[in-house]
């Protein structure tokens, strides 16, 4: 018998269909097998392990696969999924199918016969093999051989491994950032370009069956979400299909996550304090907002579990801290997993679904579903992006990024006549002018050490050795230029510039970021992460006390902050600069109509503002009385030059020139 009834539902095992009062539901074969297994043991309690072993064979035990199947069946069969009548849960024991036994089954479905034999075999060998052998499978952690994935000398990024494991897709970066998507067959080494138009391609993601590849494509001022149907044997692709476009919102996660049910999951931000978790139906092109996050939690990355039941979410919670949560798709509940330090440039699931692989700056880390962390050690000094296990768990594929940041200079008289000041083939960044603009301080990561240097009269001089090699959270000058102040997560370092000596000021407030020194107090303006978002705070160096400067409105994100020479506080969100009134209220001081405010400098008679838009940025000088604007500097994106600092007169500029080479590798 290949059919049976559950209440008013008729189940057709061979066709994977359930008829509910005349409405036909087609389900996945594995889900039907779970139902058939429960029916073969109707009115008996069977464990999740029994179900998994019977249906998925010798795969690594993953309870989420069983739980997802049960949830799908309940949605179809039960009138009320919260109070099920037929598919019952027995806490810590398993599930049962409650059904009236009106007549014996003389001809059970063939799948049930097979399942019964398998289960009998399992119990027969139970004395030799324990369930723990399946429940706690070993994950490979020992890797030693690092090999290139491609032989091209071009920079390559956005690596994604197909579910079939033999094909990878990536973006090969050409001249002037004119990129193409390529696919490569690992078994033969054959590779082929599959896009026709050279433009900016990002956020790749395979469908679960490996037949299609989704991506973002830049066209003029908007990004298109599209997909190609791929022939993995011929390494060919069809004409792309457009699903939607993004104008006001930007997709910010590294990879698109495509489920077996035909949804593509992604996250977006609006350039402000709001990020959203979304999905789009490939069939209907309808976009759903699954959850919105405001202010103090910025959703950055996500990864869909192998069984499609959960999303791992990564949030930037500021001050160099990143939180990883698990989001259950069915009930939209979130579980906090772990908070770790240093940038996360990729997150993916182990193929068994029991752990997450995290690209944590230059380290690889594995986090299980209880939040326990294990390091994966191998010789490396590059940044890691998009690390992912192969389907069998025996290799890790990833991008290694070698970074070089140089410091360059130009003047208002000839803003595009750049002069190289600091070039060490290392990270030299965060240059900040002294009050008299005769010199600047910058952070450098030479030989893996995070140190501070002074550049003056064409020479560099080390002034802070950072003996514990701690992460530094900003650097500011004292108002007279005799000192620089920097901070680790629990210590202020006050450096005498002339002597290159420092003293420490310990505190118990956790990490905060330095913005400016006060003119009339021995204090620094800092930003501190709270449960309500980022807040401007004054840290008094003498008393070691923190003072909240104003309680910002709900969902207000403080992007930038500064002081004038009277120590009046100014803050900005993405489009406005505010002055604080009586230290508590905000009033609009200036508003941008052409882009997002990324920084400002306050002088006595004017202020300068850096405004970024889709094509580049501009530096504007504003009269505080008339609010008349004078454009000082404009620059389009594309040459890897970024304005970092301007002097108080807004006629000398310091730039960071970023060069990065991305190489695709496989770790065995």
Short summary of the structure?
With 668 residues, the chain is mainly beta.
Report what the structure shows:
The chain has five helices and 54 strands. The chain has four domains: 3-135, Winged helix-like DNA-binding domain superfamily/Winged helix DNA-binding domain (Arc Repressor Mutant, subunit A), CATH 1.10.10; 146-402 and 663-667, TolB, C-terminal domain (Neuraminidase), CATH 2.120.10; 414-549, TolB, C-terminal domain (Neuraminidase, 6 Propeller), CATH 2.120.10; 556-635, Thrombin, subunit H. α1 packs across α3 (63-77) and α2 crosses α3. 35% of the residues are buried. A hairpin with a 3-residue loop joins β47 and β48. It starts with a strand and ends with a strand. It is elongated.
Structure keywords:
single chain, 668 residues, mainly beta, Arc Repressor Mutant, subunit A, Neuraminidase, six-stranded antiparallel β-sheet, 5 helices, elongated
Helix amount, in percent? under 10%
Tally of separate helices: 5
The CATH architecture of the largest domain would be 6 Propeller
C-alpha geometry: elongated
Largest sheet: 6 strands, antiparallel
At the first level of CATH, the class of the largest domain is: Mainly Beta
* Span of the ends, CA to CA: 49 Å
Q: Averaged pLDDT, please? A: 87
Q: What's the CATH topology name of the largest domain?
A: Neuraminidase
Radius of gyration: 29 Å
Please tell me the total number of domains: 4
Contiguous runs where pLDDT drops below 50 for at least 5 residues: 102-136
Q: Classify the secondary structure makeup into a structural class.
A: mainly beta
CATH fourth-tier homologous superfamily of the largest domain:
TolB, C-terminal domain
Oligomer: single chain
Strand content: over 45%
DSSP strand count? 54
